[in-house]
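Hexosyltransferase structure dump, as promised
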Amino acid sequence: MAAQKKRTLKAFVGVLIGILMSNLLSSSHFCRSGVEREASRPMQLLDEENRRAFNKNLLFVGVITAARYLDTRAKSVYDTWGSEISGKVTFFSSEGSKSDYVPLVALPFVDDSYPPQRKSFMMLKYMHDHYVDHYEWFIRADDDVYMRTDKLEELLRSVDSRKPWFIGQTGRGNTEEFGQLSLDSDENFCMGGPGVILSRETLKRVAPHLDHCLQELYTTHEDVELGRCVRKYAGISCTWSYEMQVIFYHNQSGESAFSSDLKQKEVHRAITLHPVKKDQLMYRLHKYIKGLNIQNLQQSSLLLHRDIAASMDELGHQVGGLSQVKLSQSLPLFPAKRGAPGYLGETSLLGVPTKLNRYTPRTLENVLEWEIVSKTLYSHKDLNPRRRIGSSLKEGLGDVTREIMELINSYSKQRGRVIEFKDIFYGYYRVNPIYGVDLILDMLLVYRKYRGHKLTVQVRRHAYVQQTYTGTFIREINNSHHLLDRHYSSTEPEPIHRHIINQIFSKLNVKLPPLSKSSTNNKTNINFILPVSGRYETFKRFLKHYEEQCILQGENTSLYIILYKNESSPEDFTNSLRLVKDLNFRYQQGGVRVVTSNDTFTRGRALQIGVELLQNKDLMLFIDVDMIFDRSTLERIRRNTVIKRKVYFPIVYSLYNPKFLNEYTNISGSTQGIIDETNGFWRQFGFGIGSLYKSDYIDLGGFNLMISGWGYEDVTFYDNVVKSGLKIVRAVDPGLIHVYHNVQCDEHLEVGQKAMCLGSMADTMGALKTLQELFLKYKTLFR
Ligand SMILES: *[C@@H]1O[C@H](CO)[C@@H](O)[C@H](O)[C@H]1NC(C)=O
Ligand SMILES: *[C@@H]1O[C@H](CO)[C@@H](O)[C@H](O)[C@H]1NC(C)=O
Ligand SMILES: *[C@@H]1O[C@H](CO)[C@@H](O)[C@H](O)[C@H]1NC(C)=O
Ligand SMILES: *[C@@H]1O[C@H](CO)[C@@H](O)[C@H](O)[C@H]1NC(C)=O
Ligand SMILES: *[C@@H]1O[C@H](CO)[C@@H](O)[C@H](O)[C@H]1NC(C)=O
Ligand SMILES: *[C@@H]1O[C@H](CO)[C@@H](O)[C@H](O)[C@H]1NC(C)=O
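structure tokens r here:
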């Protein structure tokens, strides 16, 4: 992202300088003590722990809590920001409070009553008596506040702590309160909720008088009274600055504050956030802020990579070869190589400066195409060129504009103006697979000048933005669900994912551990239930496929064929029977059974016949004779079907009419390499193929057997599963392929039905692209 975070950068450089200094110090120490050190020893970055140790005496935070919140709010503060401050945090509660977890002071003669005037004043006194000479700053905090410790530190380091300071969100009470607070018109106080900061000097001046102030309370408002005391004895008031309303952010929604979306400019700009009423929300907020910090660090790292690349360029080094460069004989520019700890990233990619042509296409196909966003999205990549802007893109654009506005407004104060975002007129974007996303935005902004000649105008500005990829990270998730499933003792990725992961890892030269024995040897039996009526040739293909994929591979499967006598082709029936007989003769243990029926065919009833042959604990797969499959599908069926928990309804890939397929597509072999845009489509609305345990099928009430012919029994069944407590696993299954078969539309159908039949025939005929090409080729024929 081109939007630079100057502040973070400064902080980072500060840290870096700190590190350099410490390195110099420690090496001189070593020299004096006569220990030899190699000149080429790489500079070590300090970990967070040590970094904080350098600033241990910056601030002391006193958190006001109560006995009943020690295990919840107090703990959550201590687990999150409380333990990250550059100094010390201590919790203050009533007399007799105890905690094994948080550092606690149980103040004598103090109870947990509200408002906590006495607790607060006694806490300040305690801070003074024990720590006033150890820390520069003192914070009075509540247990429902979140503080961004890095930003807080940055703020405090920019202020002279030797002077008296009383910093916080300025309050004057609302109009009706104002009279009762006994404040003069030029007087204020720092509101307690979002936290109050006192410099050492302030605390020193106020501390001797705290007892006195406590005896002379005008109101029950603890923060108002503290303000009064500070004004009287330290001679200062709470900082009068509009900025403080932003830095010390208080949300009005009470209990539900910070429970919804945190991606808001208020959250991003604040240093302290209040109120966080539940400990879960505290952890959530902390995680979110950590995410922001990671982003900022990645941004800084990116800028450093660019600086390095630019500097090395001046020295005559190509950006592509930087990983090999040596600064001197034994001092490589990047000591840690890829894969090693401390590796800093690929400068040859990350260091490339931002410009619209940082990627140069070599061929026409490699030219990156732009898409247009305005009120809707215009894209050539879909058959429907004009679409709704999806939620991910919307969120992405929101992020980008927020960052742009932060950047634009980072100098607002100095320039006496503020610029607000109104709208995006239109924008172009493209995704560059190597470097990231390019964006060109035409934005409507409102420019408000509040200093000098005051002015409000609407302006349009173009923004050129590049979001840069920062590298690939792989995390293995320990899916404890699988541990619970008794069928799977293994938590490893399934073979198809493994295949992809292996490809990635082989590029990174990392080897995955082999699949454990338990997951390859012990496989639940899958009972195929296959209704057949006529269609001998197709049945033959299915059976051959079953033989190759299951029997010959020693898969733990059984096949139940429900064979119907089809009046129109009786020879299909006998041929099919012969085929099964022949198969069973060749494989004694093949596990293929056939049940015949004279009835008129309905798919639901046929499947029901199959189900009745099984036991309650059996795993069943409803399948069609048009399908071909590979063994990875069997693995997915086993993984995604869990008794009493999950039912698997794969989305199958449906091939187009072979006449319109890619000439290289070979469907008689395996399913490998078939799936692409021209060969077929994913049958989003097909629910005929599914797997579940028989006991779950029974609990669901089974199929509706009143439906005749092909159709709808699967949809109604799917509906039942949706309504039940079972989880549906619905995902594309690249190993399950439906082969095209001719649909005949009866000439005698009524007009509406015939139109529908022809329509669905056309849908499955061929890819629109293929048909379009044919049309263009044989245009004259269509005249
Ligand atoms: C702050 O409060 C407002 C309503 O008062 C609410 O709409 C908003 O979502 C809150 N912000 C956060 C971050 O919780
Ligand atoms: C996965 O989680 C379980 C239970 O939480 C734990 O016992 C196991 O050690 C974890 N495995 C790995 C590899 O982290
Ligand atoms: C195989 O799995 C079943 C449960 O599906 C289990 O009862 C059995 O002990 C397992 N056998 C082996 C050898 O792991
Ligand atoms: C086959 O499946 C059955 C039932 O799911 C199971 O008991 C049996 O152990 C499996 N056999 C093999 C060889 O995995
Ligand atoms: C099918 O019909 C024939 C006579 O038409 C009868 O002999 C046979 O038993 C029937 N089979 C079944 C399974 O109903
Ligand atoms: C298609 O695949 C089958 C089985 O793998 C093979 O026997 C056949 O020769 C292939 N056909 C073509 C045209 O490649």
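The chain has a mean pLDDT of 82.
lmk if u need the other ones
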